[in-house]
Design brief:
By secondary structure, this protein is an alpha/beta fold. Strands 1-2-4-3-5-6-7-8 form an eight-stranded mixed β-sheet, sandwiched between helices. α3 packs across α4.
């Protein structure tokens, strides 16, 4: 955990009642001239820790890098409500524009659940976005989501949506449960060390952590409705976008077609030698794709 612990860690309060909304984030600033800000949004079952290998090189390339734990994850608070991607995106927009007082548009990079949040961020707050990179998820509200949400490979979408039962079955077995996903979806499972697994298991074994993680999935059908309304009312996202997937990932699932359904200006990126966990399986490839796109 050395790389992660050496980063600057902070937390801010977005609300203290009726429920506490507290967002933890890690940050790195460039030593020289700053070219812009990159907001990295993690997925499930991960936290901002997933970006531990890529934050230093992105910062060294001249960018201020911010990687929050979204509501319910990592060191952030775990309220009982507020897990639609619109709400999670609004949390992070408040973090960036109000709490950190960043007024210039930022580069949004989201993976997995974080990609859903990133896309909502760009749709809701386009003037706050310099570019959008997202992928490794079927976005609720798209044809791809409707086609694949009951695919056997996405069995956990349905399981996580069942009230109470997942918590009952997974509690006490968090480490084994998380490892199933890391092993199954990786092209390079060795990217996850024993230390990494222990860290993630510790975070998701905390009281309420798995419940919050499951609630992110329980909001998918509401997200589906929200995204369709946004598309109908605001049209496609106008922010310059790239859909980014791993070479050996299960998730591409028509990712380019999905992105063109909701984004006006789309490029397709690929992280070579990686499965689903692109920032951990091939950090160098991830950084190369991100910097190449945002600089273009």
């Amino acid at each position: 955990m050395t790389l992660y612990s050496q980063l600057t860690h902070r937390q801010v309060w977005l609300a203290q009642e009726p429920e506490e909304i507290r967002i933890h984030y890690v940050e790195a600033k460039p030593s020289g001239t700053q070219k812009g800000t990159i907001l990295l949004i993690h997925g499930f079952p991960e936290t901002s820790y997933q970006f531990r290998h890529v934050i230093p090189p992105l910062s060294s390339a001249g960018y201020r890098v911010i990687a929050p734990d979204y509501r319910g994850a990592g060191y952030s608070s775990r309220p009982t409500t507020g897990y639609t991607k619109k709400t999670l995106a609004t949390d992070l927009h408040t973090l960036v524009t109000e709490k950190l007082a960043i007024k210039d548009p930022v580069h949004i990079v989201g993976h997995d659940i974080g990609a859903m949040i990133a896309h909502a961020y760009a749709h809701l707050f386009p003037s706050s976005c310099a570019s959008l990179i997202w992928g490794e998820c079927p976005l609720p509200g798209t044809t791809t989501y409707d086609t694949y949400k009951h695919h056997p490979g996405l069995w956990h979408f349905s399981f996580h949506s069942v009230p109470d039962l997942p918590e009952l079955l997974v509690t006490g077995h968090e480490k084994q449960y998380l490892k199933h996903f890391y092993d199954r979806l990786a092209m390079n499972p060795a990217a996850f060390t024993d230390e990494d697994l222990e860290f993630y298991a510790g975070q998701y074994s905390a009281p309420g952590a798995m419940r919050a993680g499951f609630n992110v999935y329980r909001a998918f059908e509401e997200d589906r409705f929200d995204n369709r309304v946004l598309l109908a009312e605001a049209g496609k996202v106008q922010v310059r976008a790239m859909v980014l997937s791993g070479e050996g990932s299960f998730e591409p699932l028509g990712s380019e077609e999905m992105a063109r359904e909701v984004d006006e200006d789309v490029r397709v990126g690929k992280v070579e030698g990686s499965g689903h966990w692109i920032a951990e399986e091939n950090p160098e490839g991830f950084v190369r794709e991100v910097l190449g796109f945002i600089a273009g």
